[in-house]
Design goal:
The structure holds two protein chains of two kinds.
Chain A: H1 3-6, E1 9-13, E2 22-25, E3 31-35, E4 41-45, E5 59-61, E6 64-66, E7 73-75, E8 92-98, E9 101-105, E10 117-118, E11 121-122
Chain B: E1 6-7, E2 22-23, H1 33-44, E3 49-53, E4 62-68, E5 71-77, E6 83-87, E7 102-104, E8 108-110, E9 117-119, E10 124-126, E11 147-151, E12 154-158, H2 166-178, E13 193-202, H3 206-214, H4 219-222, H5 224-229, E14 242-243, E15 247-248, E16 277-283, E17 287-292, E18 295-305, E19 308-317, H6 319-323, H7 329-349, E20 363-364, H8 371-382, H9 388-397
Helix pairs in contact in B: 3-7
The chains are: A mainly beta, B alpha+beta.
Bound molecules: FE2/S2 (inorganic) cluster (2 copies) and fe (ii) ion (FE2).
Chain lengths: ~120, ~400
């Protein structure tokens, strides 16, 4: 195993996340992992920065996920939000596939959680 | 002459008044709120109810809302193009999800109150703080599904927990009228296209409309154009008086049109003995079907109140006829006039239903006696309901 993957956490076999699917990881805070129709993998914070909605339940179109509650869209590559009601970006995490397994390295930035939410859940 | 059509014997529990006359339903059954509520609960919310034309819901997310009994129902098309139907009620705190009669949902149905969000299969897919409540089962708290059948190009819904047999109730009604359910197959109704739709807001009880549709004692008086096309209607015996009998077009009549002019292209599957004939079927509780060689007319009733019924009427033609933009107006005009004439008559009956003179109802002449079977059926469902007007009387007595 390479030194990079040493600090990465193994998530699951790639075969468990079909194209077009997303999964929510119960990390703190939770992370959403997307396998797009085009075959790309992305990981961002799962909780929308506007209110407590799970972006893994959102709709992916191209490289964007639309929040299922109030339709702000987040760029899966940069975490940037396109338009209100959400204003702050989500963090983007590093994803890699090694020997058929998905690995993830969490961003070290501070997450932008919506009001009333901490990394452990509700205040 | 061909074989004499089989005559339906009138039978039942209604009062025989004289050799020729039997009684109708009492007047209160057409106006009483309690009776109407019982009909909503025991008839419209229990039986298969023809709700929407399937072709009106072809795009994923397209939806219609329909009133069935006391309930509002969303009928929609999911991502795979399959039809789904749900009670129009948010599972959180009961908000009516869709207020529009029809529309296009983007990807989901979202409640305007706290944003509970349901996918096009009704599953709860998002809600504020939903992930913090892992005990909420997204299927169990999804929209409540309604039973669905697609038949004759329409979506039929049943709100009952255990739906009655579709084969017996719906297909059975066709069998009963045509003598064989497959006699409708040749009209290929499911694959016809909509040429015209007219919606009528009728200020009359739904039963008056059914009774009107079942008899032809009125035809020579109020339907001059129809009687011109179907001369045998002048004798007052409706097509629905018989089994397997279609009323024949008059000699000089070219088509089923307002002036007897040429109709549209004949539906190829129509059998030789069905050509130049008109068939009419009532499918209880709210559907009328008319079959003629070049088109099919489907009426769907939506009883809204004891004294108000919305009737949506579709004229269906071969797809090639509709695509070519051929003029269907002479064809539509015939039954549109019939509808107006009939609904006017029903609206003129409605006010008398609460009159003291009509407390025991009116009478049916022999050519209307088959309506007695409909009355028996109604009384089987709601005959036990004590009219609210008599509650009033009791109060006064006290
Ligand atoms: S919760 Fe995401 S936009 Fe409102
Ligand atoms: S009532 Fe629908 S979300 Fe609250
Ligand atoms: Fe009529």
């Amino acid at each position: 195993m390479s030194s990079e993957t040493d600090q990465m956490m193994r998530v699951c076999p790639l075969s468990q996340l079909a194209r077009g699917d997303a999964m929510r990881l119960e990390t703190r805070p939770p992370i959403a992992l997307f396998h797009t129709e085009e075959g790309e993998l992305f990981a961002i914070d799962d909780t929308c920065t506007h209110q407590d909605a799970s972006l893994a339940d959102g709709y992916v179109e191209g490289c964007e996920v639309e929040c299922p509650l109030h339709a702000s869209k987040f760029d899966l590559r940069t975490g940037k939000v396109d338009a209100p009601p959400a204003k702050l970006p989500v963090r983007v995490h590093t994803v890699e596939v090694l020997d058929g397994d998905i690995y993830l390295k969490e961003s070290e930035e501070e997450p932008n959680l919506p009001p009333g939410i901490t990394v452990d859940g509700h205040v | 002459m061909t074989t004499a059509p089989e005559k339906l014997a009138a039978q039942g529990t209604h009062e025989k008044i004289s050799e020729s006359l039997i009684s109708t339903l009492p007047g209160y059954t057409y106006v009483d709120e309690g009776v109407f509520e019982a009909e909503q609960e025991r008839i419209f919310e229990q039986m298969w109810f023809c709700a929407v034309r399937s072709a009106d819901l072809e795009k994923p997310g397209s939806f219609k809302t329909v009133q069935i009994g006391r309930e509002s129902v969303i009928v929609s098309c999911n991502r795979k193009g399959e039809i789904r139907a749900f009670f129009n009620i948010c599972r959180h705190r009961g908000v009516k999800l869709c207020m529009e009669e029809s529309g296009q949902a983007e990807r989901s149905f979202q409640c305007p109150y706290h944003a509970w969000t349901y996918d096009l299969d009704g599953k709860l897919i998002a809600a504020p703080n939903l992930t913090k409540m892992p005990d909420i089962d997204r299927h169990e708290h999804g929209l409540v599904k309604v039973h669905i059948r697609e038949y004759l190009g329409y979506v039929w819904l049943c709100l009952a927990e255990e739906p009655p047999s579709f084969e017996e109730d719906v297909m059975g009604a066709i069998e009963e009228r045509l003598g064989d359910v497959h006699k409708i197959d040749g009209y290929d109704v499911a694959n016809l296209s909509l040429g015209r739709r007219i919606t009528y807001d009728v200020k009359a009880n739904w039963k008056l409309i059914i009774e009107n549709f079942m008899e032809c004692y009125h035809c020579a008086t109020i339907h001059p154009e129809l009687t011109e096309v179907l001369p045998e209607f002048a004798d007052g015996l409706a097509a629905q008086y018989f089994v397997g009998h279609g009323a024949e077009f008059g000699e000089n009549i070219k088509g089923f049109t307002v002036d007897g002019s040429e109709g549209l292209d004949v539906i190829p599957g129509v059998a030789e003995d069905q050509d130049r004939r008109y068939y009419a079927i009532t499918i209880k509780p709210t559907v009328f079907v008319n079959l003629v060689p070049d088109h099919v007319i489907i009426h769907r009733m939506f009883p809204m109140a004891a004294d108000r019924t919305i009737v949506e009427c579709d004229w269906l033609y071969l797809p090639s006829v509709v695509e070519s933009g051929k003029d269907v107006s002479a064809s539509v005009e015939l039954f549109h006039r019939v509808n107006q004439q009939d609904f006017d008559a029903c609206e003129r009956c409605q006010p008398a239903m609460s009159s003291r003179i009509y407390a025991k109802g009116g009478v049916l002449v022999p050519s209307e006696h088959h309506i007695g079977a409909f009355h028996d059926w109604v009384m089987d469902q709601v005959g036990d309901v004590v009219p609210e007007s008599s509650h009033g009387v009791r109060k006064e007595v006290r």
